[in-house]
Structures are given as C-alpha cells and as structure tokens.
Protein: Bifunctional oligoribonuclease and PAP phosphatase NrnA
Organism: Clostridium oryzae
Amino acid sequence: MIKMFSPIISTIKKAKNIAISFHVSPDGDSIGSSLGLMLALRKIGKNPIIVMKDTTPKFTGFLPHIEEIVNGDINPNVDCLIILDCGNVERVNCGIDRENTNYILINMDHHASNDYYGDINFVDTSYSSMGEIVYKLLEEMNIDIDQEIATCLYTSIITDCGSFKYSNTTKLTHEIAGNLIGTGINFSQIHSLIYDNKELCVVKLAGKVIENMAMYADGRICVLSVTENLVHEYGCDNSDISELVNIGSLINTVEVVVFFKETSDRLKVSLRSQKEYDVKSVAEVYGGGGHIKAAGFTYSGKIKDIEKQLIELISKGFN
C-alpha cells in the first residue's frame, strides 16, 4: 500500500498540542473535516483544538463537539498547526505568526489554486472534499472511525459535492460515503438537518434575492446580491445565506452564477459554473481560487465597484 501521508503522520506522532484551522467564511467541508480530524487525534492521545476567527454556519450546529471550537488565535504552546481546505495564508481563519512561533505548519487542501505555504503540503485536486482526504489520512493511521467522526466527515463530503450531484463526485466519493454510512450514522437525518432546515427569514430573503436577480449575456450569466442592509432587514445570519448562490443554477439558460454577499468589512463573491466554464480562472484574477465549477474571492469595495467589470470579464470567456 502506498503511504501518501508519511510526513504528515510522522509530524503528528511527534506533536502533543495540535491546532486545526481552515479558510475564512467556513463551510460544511471545512467544519466537518476539522471536527472529524480533532476527534480522531484524541483517540491517539493528542491534544487537538480547532481555532477560528469567524462564527460557524448555523446548519453545522448539529455536529458533535462543535461547541468546542475556540474563537481566537494560535496558542504559543502549539507544536503543530494543521490548515485544512485553505488555498493561501491570507485566507486562514486564525492569526499566523511564523516568525515568533516554532510550530510546524501542515497545509492540506484539494484546490488547484493552493499556494503550498506550509512546511509540509498535501494538495490533491482529485478529491471531492477535505472530508475525503481526512478519511484517507485516518485510514493510513489505522484510527477507528466511529459514528461521531463519520457524522462529521459525511457532512464534509456531501456539502462539498452537492449531495453527490456536482462533477467533483467520484467513485471514491461514493465508496467513502458508503463506508461512513456503514458505521451506523443516520445519513437521512444529516441530509435533512443540512438542506431541509431553513429559518423562515432565509426563505423570505431568498424571495427578495430572486426579485432583485439580474441576467446578462443573453441569460448565460445570473447575478444575485445580498447586501448587509438586506440581511439586517430580514433578520438573517450572514453565515447561513451562502447557498443562495444555487438559486441561479435552477435557470436553464444560465452557465455562470455570480453571488455577491456583502459584510461589514468585505465583499464575498461566489462563482458557479453550470457547464464547462472555468470560474476558477476568473476568481484568480481577483486573488481568489477554488475549482473549475465552483470558485470565489473577496473584494474590499462595494458591489457597484466590481459588478460591471466582472460581468465583462466573464462574458469574454464564452465561445
């Protein structure tokens, strides 16, 4: 059997205090894979902790031990910092001070745009999610995957491959999901808690987003926007509206969806492709990244400052 994770496993074995973090604006993949890894490391006598600056999305609230995630920066006594699902240092969800700390930084990701910023890097775009990578790591470490870990990893996988409907889904994705189901998790309930558990304010907000929807390039581009004022008006949590980007994908003429989500300090731009359009290349123009069919970036200005130029850039990519 090929040992893919030998440097990572060797570092973990030598470490006692291990911190785990991920990208800003965390999603089901980053939260689920981090919790699964944390619980697994405890089984081998390690002292892992998950650190972040943001808040967790509400839909992840059912995950075991999610209340143990710490809001803050890295403790000086950390021996090893593992960053999951994050392409560059600028988007890491915790403070990193490499000059005044001695921990080893492990960077694990499945995005092609990764900057390989770790002391040890494992980046493989063939995996649908970080949940798959963590599963394979635990498998190589011979750590038993119980129902709590399986719940976390299953959540990670289905949220990043759209419940197996996205093109990043592979034969391995189904095999791992089947093994996780084999632990006895209630996969139907997990799906319901993630996708069929919306607050009324989010549903009402979705109606307003549809009302304000804009179409460009003969219906090939759909632009959806959620301003900070709109979020406050409907009383929603900013962390639970990202999946509204999927509304645009329901339209049969749409090839690219642009979703603007405004916060107090930045604009988050999510891009989705319905066909073969490479939205990752668009995101990279603005310092972002992701996958060919799902990418994004952050922008320091307002929607009106970028919408026109972004639409023009996307339009140039059509045949």
About this structure: The mean pLDDT is 93. The longest strand covers residues 256-262. The domain at 6-195 is CATH 3.90.1640.10 (inorganic pyrophosphatase (n-terminal core)).
